[in-house]
């Protein structure tokens, strides 16, 4: 891994941490790319996948031919790619197309917990000077 990749991963880690604090759910690699101004979405997606299951849970979102997000699965192997199904948004019958399956992520519960634990606001060390002098 070169230094540039290392810095990219560091940026992504930092961004994920702040997103986890805000309990952001269901985000795509493109969201991370936009936030960090990165063009290489494949690299970002691969790095995000490498954080499964430590930080992230992947979601594979299947789009119907009309562009609705019809359903999601956590495991791509459980996708019913052969059987026709009916979109629960528009009612169109279709067979899921591998080119219309989008990768997204949620944070793993244990990761959100650990981020929040590490981000408890600390009492400023000068707090005792915040009182009027007369009360000291
Ligand atoms: Zn539809």
Give the SSE map.
Blueprint: H1 3-21, H2 29-36, H3 41-50, E1 56-63, E2 69-73, E3 85-86, E4 93-94, E5 101-107, H4 109-118
Antiparallel strand pairs: 1-2, 1-5, 3-4
Helix pairs in contact: 2-3
The structure holds zinc ion.
Zinc ion is lined by residues 64, 66, 68, 70, 87, 89-90, 92.
Please characterize this protein's 3D structure.
It contains 4 helices and 5 strands. By secondary structure, the protein is of the alpha+beta class. The chain has one domain. The chain has a 3-stranded antiparallel β-sheet with strand order 2-1-5. It has a two-stranded antiparallel sheet with strand order 3-4. Helix 2 packs across helix 3. The longest helix is centred in the N-terminal third of the chain and has 19 residues. The termini are far apart. The relative contact order is 0.16. About 4% of the residues have low confidence. The site of zinc ion (ZN) has 8 residues, from loops.
Distance between the termini: 56 Å
Which regions have little confidence, pLDDT < 50, spanning 5+ residues? 125-129
Envelope shape: globular
For the secondary structure, the number of strands is: 5
Biggest sheet descriptor:
3 strands, antiparallel
